[in-house]
């Protein structure tokens, strides 16, 4: 822009001001880091567990690595203790395309693809190796495709194993008969309800956060959880016995919206999956390492650990859950696929 001597003073002053603004704006653009100008993607990740649980640490590790590998292009924000809402409500938001993720299980996924609920049944998987083999099973891959294609739920990974679930009660439990008349809290999905019923107890659907007051008020007689849930929830204050039934190895699924996932750059998709699996493997191994420490801590706090449980009787009783839900053939076929006897 050229300002001649014949240009009126006001006009020259206005033009000079405009030039200064343009220069300042250009400088501001140059000053902004390149990463800040790039497209941004955010995932708000919700889970029901407390901030001291191993899973929360694992989710934070997953988020940190995704942030590092995408150079800030994909940012995960982790919310513990159901801060974003109830699990079932969050899953519906995910189906609508929201940029939210949820730690969940195959029982809840079974509300959309019934067969997949089998993975949450009694004694379905009993080792980390069996869970790893499930990741390659054709039937499981088909279920995941159906969840994504028909129901808007993308399973990022499902190798997060929360440990063995046991019954925690105020009386010792050694056989299914010992559970008769015991009201045991479970999540609301059918496979949960029928599994606990088959094992001898009366299932009571209740949110995770309502268990402690439910025990105080005697709305329930016990819970079935993994060892690592007990210290964080302070359940040792209201329960006396940890009964090692190992009735479910809890396999957790990390799900996001299919629509949101498909909108990510391909390299971001790969990073999100790879780091989910990496953190899942690490966290699952850490949980099994910690179980022994938690068990010893609970002994010190006055809980009695019941180890002489009749596992054969519980396994036999658990078959009824599969029969009731017409999942026995599905279970047997999938066990054949992964070589489980």
Number of domains: 1
Structural class: alpha/beta
As a whole number of angstroms, the C-alpha radius of gyration is: 26 Å
CATH superfamily caption? Bacterial extracellular solute-binding protein, family 7
CATH class: Alpha Beta
Give the percentage of residues in beta strands. 15-25%
Profile the largest sheet: 9 strands, mixed
Give the low-pLDDT segments: 1-37
Order of helical and strand elements: HHEHEHEHHHEEHEHEHEHHEHH
Tell me which CATH architecture applies here. Answer: 3-Layer(aba) Sandwich
Tell me the number of strands.
Answer: 9
Helix content: 40-55%
- Structural shape: globular
- Here the CATH topology equals D-Maltodextrin-Binding Protein, domain 2
Count of helix runs: 14
* Average pLDDT over all residues: 90
* Distance, first to last CA: 83 Å
Describe the structure.
The chain is α/β, with parallel strands linked by helices and about 350 residues long. It has a single domain (about 35-340), classed as D-Maltodextrin-Binding Protein, domain 2 (3-Layer(aba) Sandwich), CATH 3.40.190. The protein contains 14 helices and 9 strands. Strands 1, 2, 3, 4, 5, 6, 7, 8 and 9 form a 9-stranded mixed beta sheet that branches. Helix 8 (about 190-200) links the parallel strand 5 and strand 6 (about 200-205). It starts with 8 loop residues before the first helix and ends with a helix.
């Amino acid at each position: 822009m050229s300002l001649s001597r014949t240009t009126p003073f006001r006009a020259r002053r206005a033009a000079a001001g405009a030039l200064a603004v343009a220069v300042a704006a250009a400088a501001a653009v140059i000053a902004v880091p390149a990463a800040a100008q790039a497209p941004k993607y955010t995932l708000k990740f919700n889970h029901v567990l407390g901030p001291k649980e191993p899973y929360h640490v694992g989710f934070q590790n997953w988020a940190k690595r995704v942030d590092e590998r995408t150079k800030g292009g994909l940012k995960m924000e982790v919310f513990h203790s159901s801060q974003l809402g109830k699990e079932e409500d969050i899953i519906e938001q995910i189906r609508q395309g929201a940029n939210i993720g949820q730690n969940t299980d195959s029982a809840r996924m079974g509300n959309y693809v019934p067969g997949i609920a089998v993975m949450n049944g009694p004694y379905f998987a009993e080792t980390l190796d069996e869970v790893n083999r499930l990741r390659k099973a054709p039937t499981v891959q088909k279920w995941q495709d159906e969840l994504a294609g028909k129901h808007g739920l993308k399973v990022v990974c499902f190798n997060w194993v929360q440990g063995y679930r046991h019954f925690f009660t105020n009386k010792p439990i050694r056989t299914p008969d010992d559970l008769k008349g015991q009201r045991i809290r479970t999540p609301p999905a059918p496979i949960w309800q029928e599994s606990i019923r088959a094992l001898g107890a009366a299932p009571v659907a209740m949110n995770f956060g309502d268990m402690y007051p439910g025990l105080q008020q005697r709305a329930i007689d016990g819970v079935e959880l993994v060892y690592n849930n007990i210290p964080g929830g302070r359940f040792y204050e209201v329960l006396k016995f940890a009964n090692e039934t190992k009735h479910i190895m809890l396999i957790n699924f990390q799900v996001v919206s299919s629509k949101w996932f498909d909108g990510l750059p391909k390299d971001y998709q790969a990073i999100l999956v790879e780091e989910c699996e990496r953190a899942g493997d690490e966290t699952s191994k850490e949980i099994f390492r910690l179980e022994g420490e938690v068990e010893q801590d609970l002994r010190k706090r006055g809980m009695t650990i019941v180890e002489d449980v009749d596992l054969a009787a519980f396994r036999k009783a658990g078959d009824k859950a599969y029969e009731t839900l017409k999942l026995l053939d599905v279970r047997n076929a999938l066990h054949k696929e992964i070589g489980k006897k």
